[in-house]
Amino acid sequence: MKIFFAHATDHSFKYDAYKAIRASAINQKHAFTLPQEQGFQPPMPQDIIIAHDILVAECSFPSTGQGIELGWMHSLKKPVLCLYREDAKPSGSLRNVAHEIGVYKDFDDMIKKIETFIKKYESQN
Questions:
Q1: CATH topology of domain 7-122
Q2: Chain centre to alpha carbon of residue 61
Q3: HSE-up of residue 37 (Cα within 13 Å, Cβ side)
Q4: pTM, whole model, 2 decimals?
Q5: pLDDT of residue 8
Q6: Distance between CA atoms of residues 86 and 118, nearest Å
Q7: Residue 11's pLDDT is what?
Q8: Which of 2, 10, 30, 96 is deepest in the core (most CB within 10 A)?
Q9: What does the pLDDT look like over 17-73, one tens digit per residue?
């Protein structure tokens, strides 16, 4: 499956999140697009986003570009997982676009939540 990882661009957590994803077993099984790893600056072009099967969004920090990306996937009824750190207060609007919203303690916990979400949709593709 092709999975897009959306996040706010202004926060350095992305580097740790990227490392956790790349080191995980799910990275070996699925094709993750980590936008800033490839030099992309959100919001990504719509055709790139919608070419993915799933969107996973790290939503600990508000981001207009990420909101646009979430909306595109939601409008196509593609699976959207929104995750945020336990010390964050995410936007209440996420409930309107996400199939699931979850809290994570650390990046290992984040990976487990992503893996569980992906398993729900693997058989559909």
A1: Rossmann fold (3.40.50)
A2: 13
A3: 16
A4: 0.91
A5: 86
A6: 21
A7: 67
A8: 30
A9: 999 999 999 999 999 999 888 766 656 789 989 999 999 999 998 888 899 999 999
Alpha helices, DSSP H, located in the chain:
13-23, 25-29, 46-50, 64-75, 107-122
**Single-letter amino acid, residue 74:** H
For residue 16, give every residue at least 6 positions away whose Cβ sits within 8 Å of its Cβ, in sequence order, or none: 107
| Residue from 125, 100, 108 nearest 17 by CA | 108
What is the gyration radius of the CA atoms in the chain, in angstroms? 13
**Residue 11, token pair as written in the block:** 């926060």
Which amino acid, one-letter code, is at 41?
Q
| DSSP state letters, 72-102 | HHHHTT--EEEEEETT----GGGGGT-SEEE
**Burial of residue 76 (number of CB atoms within 10 Å: 0-12, 13-18, 19+):** exposed
Strand pairing category for 80-85 and 54-58: parallel
| Domain spans in the chain, listed from the N-terminal domain onward | 7-122
